[in-house]
From TrEMBL:
Enzyme Commission number(s) from the entry: 3.2.1.22
Catalytic activity field: Hydrolysis of terminal, non-reducing alpha-D-galactose residues in alpha-D-galactosides, including galactose oligosaccharides, galactomannans and galactolipids
Ranges of residues in domain Glycosyl hydrolase family 36 N-terminal: 30-267
Family: Belongs to the glycosyl hydrolase.
InterPro entries per UniProt: Aldolase_TIM, Alpga-gal_N_sf, Alpha-glycosidase_related, GH, Glyco_hydro_36, Glyco_hydro_36_C, Glyco_hydro_36_N, Glyco_hydro_b
Pfam families: Glyco_hydro_36C (PF16874), Glyco_hydro_36N (PF16875), Melibiase (PF02065)
Gene3D superfamilies, per database record: Aldolase class I, alpha-galactosidase from lactobacil brevis, Golgi alpha-mannosidase II
Protein name: Alpha-galactosidase
GO biological process: carbohydrate catabolic process
Domain (Glycosyl hydrolase family 36 C-terminal): residue spans on this chain: 624-716
Active site: residue positions: D457 (nucleophile), D523 (proton donor)
Keywords: Glycosidase, Hydrolase
Length: 728
């Protein structure tokens, strides 16, 4: 709407969906967000009120005056002295912009998804800017900007473009993530201090140590408490996410792409578009996660078929590919209920270890004289889909491809190669011939074997990633080329599903997930580590998109030994799979595993459509989490002990998100009874008695926590039995 404020005409629009409102002022150049947070009512008076606040000028001795609300692409010309939205120049000039609004459009309806597109120009530096602000029906906001060089001649070099959103003073703490291979998404938390908290990823992929999600919230916010404002930079190359508290007291959170020198130069008419910056507001982290999950599930490309039980061969056989062994593994997998067989690394030309063969995407005739057909036929004969591992963006020095085309390897352009990682380098997919080679090789195999699924790996960082022929930096171009390769394979093979794997969970972001159907959360399937990794990965992704496998009794990556009950109960709350040499499992283990697979199949509709919830229990030795159905009539929960507790007796654990006016029957899942064998005080009374308890009491009072020994899990259902009282 347009309104008159303090003698000037303001153009302010409110985008509203779910529990969120965005109030955006498009009056002057780049849009300014006046409110991002709790839903406002439909009274347009709030727009005038916020517009009047936005006119307030901040300033102090030696500091320029500026608006209370910086633009989503902050400009120094408007008085913003913090991190600039745009950094660029024309041969050292035209370094500062002052965009003037030229028009805008709003489409969509409240609660159905709305889009605000704003246009602006700076005639002096000859640039045009288009800014898009969206709010989905699920309450997920996202922003991006497109910059165009409008000059008739001359290049504009883009050094950086970053988008940002304001958060209020109540945002006193920051939560984001770090990690490493086998320990992805490790949380770190600290006060929202003066200055800039910057999380840059310069690995050429999202990275195991990526910030992942940056959440600013009220003091001591948790899963079920506190107000939270969270952002995610959706980009699989070099990227940045940041939080900033300026001298003027203004707080911003934002992100964008990190560009290497010279990666984006705009000739006349050329454009550059930033990655999407996703943003969600909610009361507690569970609310933030629920909005992301609803948004992803609403996509036209979201997988709709029941997520099949995966049998992956990696930790079962590694590179030791033998037809009889693999057929036996497939047969055992089918007997316990597996539905998809994935042949991992080691099937292609010369690939007996990780030192050779990458790039030579041909079935090795020395191991497979009849090709993969005998294995594929055997897998399909026992009722399973067939999947295959690739690492399309990589090449070994010891490969036919590298020997034929060393110029296709990414490098700094001075004749040397970057430091090797895992005995491999990165193939420059920005070279059209290299792109076509990989595309045609993989596409031919998908067609020949009717491959249902690709595990798409990416096992090294992009170090000194340039074009060896020209010396130009190529991370930006490589990222776009990887997307284009996925897009074209999906176009040619519409039934194909793709898993994003990158040394485990090193490429988990919402842009690669526009093209993939799940992520491999970590190469570590030790259930103790996986409890932590899956807990935090679930802030962004719903369970059906997080690959989670039952491994061998002793984990290959940590050498810790766990019960099958703990391993399976952990895998249950994801996209369930098996990565274990079942030939060494006992008949009793195979029988128990089959029961867990049956439980997953029975509950996967709930697990993969319900609302994920977590209990804010004060003792970190105990976790409780679960999934509640959309109608709140059913739930599946688990109690997990990660460690010993300082307390002699566990307290009651409150179970959230239930219908307070329904009574629920507590139904222990018998398969997890094995986890109760090692207790200090026997089974809790509710496990034996199967009581009926109101949702109100379960949330306000809770269940007595069982005194499990460490590294065990207990699974139980809540099933609506009856209303607790007559509903009005």
């Amino acid at each position: 709407m347009s309104l008159s404020t303090a003698g000037s005409v303001r153009c302010v629009h409110t985008l509203t969906a779910a529990t969120t409102s965005l109030v955006v002022d498009v009056s002057s150049g780049v849009p300014r967000v006046l409110h991002w947070g709790a839903r406002l009512d439909d009274d347009p008076a709030h727009e005038g009120f916020l517009a009047s606040l936005s006119d307030t000028q901040f300033g102090a001795d030696g500091l320029p005056g500026q608006h209370r609300y910086p633009a989503v692409l902050p400009e120094q010309s408007a008085g913003w002295m913090g991190t600039p939205g745009l950094e660029g120049h024309r041969d050292g000039t035209a370094f500062s912009t002052r965009f003037v609004a030229t028009g805008h459009e709003v489409s969509g309806r409240p609660d159905e998804g709305q889009v605000l597109v704003s246009r602006a120009v700076d005639e002096a530096v000859q640039l045009a800017l288009t800014t898009t602000v969206e709010l989905s029906a699920e309450g997920v906001a996202r922003l991006r900007a497109t910059l165009t060089n409008t000059a008739e001649s001359g290049t504009f070099t883009v050094n950086a473009m970053r988008l940002a959103l304001p958060v209020p003073d109540e945002a006193q703490e920051i939560l984001d993530f770090t990690g490493r291979h086998l320990r992805e998404r490790t949380p770190q938390r600290h006060p929202f201090r003066a200055g800039t908290h910057v999380r840059e990823g310069r690995r050429g992929r999202t990275g195991s140590d990526a910030g992942f999600l940056l959440a600013a919230g009220t003091t001591d916010f948790g899963f079920r408490r506190g107000e939270v404002w969270a952002v995610h930079t959706a980009w699989s190359g070099n990227h940045v996410t940041f939080a900033e508290l300026g001298l003027n007291g203004l707080r911003l959170v934002g992100g964008g792409e990190v560009l290497l020198p010279g990666e984006v130069t705009l000739e006349p008419g050329d454009t550059y578009t930033t990655p999407w910056l996703y943003a969600v507001h909610g009361n507690g982290l569970d609310a933030v996660a629920a909005a992301f999950h609803r948004h992803l599930r609403a996509r036209a490309t979201h997988p709709t078929s029941p997520r099949p039980v995966v049998l992956n061969t990696w930790e079962a056989v590694y590179f030791d590919h033998d037809l009889d062994t693999l057929i036996e593994l497939a047969t055992l997998g089918a007997k316990v209920g597996a539905e998809r067989f994935v042949l991992d690394d080691g099937w292609f030309l010369g690939r007996r270890d990780d030192r050779k063969g990458l790039g030579d995407w041909q079935v090795d005739p020395g191991v497979w004289p009849q090709g993969l057909h005998p294995l594929v036929d055997a897998v399909r004969s026992v009722g399973m889909q067939f999947g295959l591992w690739f690492e399309p963006e990589m090449v070994n020095d010891d490969s036919e491809l590298a020997r034929a085309h060393p110029e296709w390897i990414l490098g700094p352009g001075d004749g040397r190669l970057p430091l090797a990682g895992r005995h491999q380098h990165v193939l420059n997919l920005a070279v059209p011939e290299a792109f076509e080679h990989v595309l045609e090789s993989i596409s031919a195999l998908i067609a020949e074997y009717r491959i249902d699924y690709i595990k798409w790996d990416h096992n090294r960082d992009l170090v000194e990633a340039g074009d060896r022929r020209t010396g130009e930096a190529k991370v930006h171009a490589q990222t776009l080329a990887a997307y284009a390769l996925m897009d074209e394979l999906r176009r040619r093979h519409p039934r194909l599903e793709i898993e994003s794997c990158s040394s485990g969970g090193g490429r988990v972001d919402l842009e690669v997930l526009q093209r993939t159907d799940r992520v491999w959360a970590s190469d570590c399937i030790d259930p103790l580590e996986r409890q932590r990794i899956q807990r935090w990965t679930g802030l962004l992704l719903p369970a059906e998109m997080i690959g989670s496998h039952v491994g061998a009794p002793t984990a290959h990556t940590t050498d810790r030994t766990h019960s099958l009950a703990f391993r399976a109960a952990t895998a249950l709350f994801g996209h369930f799979g098996i990565e274990w040499d079942l030939r060494g499992a006992s008949p009793e283990e195979l029988e128990e595993l089959g029961e867990w697979v049956a439980l997953y199949k029975q509950e996967r509709e709930l697990l993969h459509s319900g609302t994920a919830v977590h209990c804010d229990y004060p003792d970190d030795a105990y976790w409780a989490h679960g999934v509640v159905s959309q109608d709140r009539r059913r739930a599946l929960f688990t109690f997990v002990t990660l460690d010993t507790s300082a307390a002699a007796q566990q307290g009651r654990i409150r179970l959230p998100a239930l219908d307070p006016d329904l009574a629920y029957r507590v139904e222990p899942v018998p398969l997890s009874a094995g986890a109760l064998v090692r207790t200090r005080s026997g089974k809790p009374s509710w496990w034996l008695d199967r009581p009926v308890i109101s949702g109100r009491a379960l949330e306000a009072v809770g269940l007595q926590g069982p005194m499990l020994y460490p590294e065990q899990a207990l699974v139980f259902r809540l099933v609506a039995d009856r209303p607790t009282r007559q509903r009005s």
